[in-house]
Amino acid sequence: MKNILLGVLFSLGVAAPAITHAQSFTFPHDTVTQSVGGFANIHNNITNSSSSSVSLQWRVIASNFPADWLTSSAIGICDACTCISNTSNQLWNPSTSTGTQYTCSYAASATNDFHLQLDLTAATSGGSRFITVQVTETGFPSKNMTFIINKVPVGVPSVTNANDMVIYPNPAHDDINVVFSGDVKTIAVFNIIGKVMATYRVAGSSANINLENVPSGIYFLRLLNSQENVVATKKFTKQ
Questions:
Q1: Average pLDDT, stretch 171-188?
Q2: In which domain, by residue range, is 147 found?
Q3: From CA 10, how far away is CA 6, in angstroms rounded?
């Protein structure tokens, strides 16, 4: 039927419709926001949805990171092929506002690594800063991913049990960091009348909680153990 239709269009002097193909790759977020005090890996992994490998080119196209965030020991970007530090300003040169282009092959029908690596332990500059990476597949428009980094104080105190949990920043904006210890499997956000606003499954001894969908106000952060019992509660403000 398709060939017959094309033949009819050709006989009538009508151009056959162009065949278009969808872009092969996606990533989950156009913008990723993270609070960082010391070391952090901020992932925005790339998925190749096609049935064949795809070669992607990427480079940093904009950033307002200060100089002590751009040292070779402070910043790196990792793709599915390798990790690249900012040696000789190859990731981003603030003097020329340019970044080197890199190429990596992403396997078919798979999600593979792409992340920003930061170690701001020695950085003295603070504030909220951004870095934007442009990703391109040959023959298609580029896509940009932006990492927004909020620098928080280094040396957040360690905790010996869940009741000594630490949360920061407080007041919070788009997210809040939680440090705890012990049997903690779930973190829940409650408003002042006891309504559950959000719940998160956690592992380890720390978590970053996204608050973008939580309205401004006063809330309680509750830690729950594997038996769903509350083991710690702390109040915070969302601005």
A1: 86
A2: 25-151
A3: 6
pLDDT at position 74: 93
Q: Are residues 97 and 208 in the same domain?
A: no
Q: Nearest 10 degrees: CA dihedral of 59, 62, 66, 67?
A: 40
Average pLDDT in the 231-235 region? 86
Amino acid found at 158:
S
Do 79 and 106 lie in a common domain? yes
DSSP state of 142: -
Query: Longest Cα pair distance anywhere in the chain, in angstroms?
Result: 80
> Strands of 102-106's sheet, edge to edge?
31-36, 143-151, 127-137, 54-63, 102-106
CA distances 191 to 198, 211, 217, Å, are 10, 13, 8
Q: Is a pLDDT exceeding 80 seen at residue 131?
A: yes
Q: Half-sphere exposure (CA, 13 Å, Cβ side) for 196?
A: 8
Among 18-22, 48-52, 169-173, top mean pLDDT goes to: 48-52
Least Cα distance to 177 among 197, 157, 195, 161 occurs for 157
* Residue 57 or residue 206, greater confidence: 57
pLDDT at 34: 82
On whether both 91 and 145 belong to a single domain, the answer is yes
Helix/strand/coil (H, E, C) string of 50-90?
Answer: CCCCEEEEEEEEEECCCHHHCCCCCEEEECCCCEEECHHHC
Check: pTM over 0.70? Answer yes or no: no
Based on the structure, what is the number of domains in the chain? 2
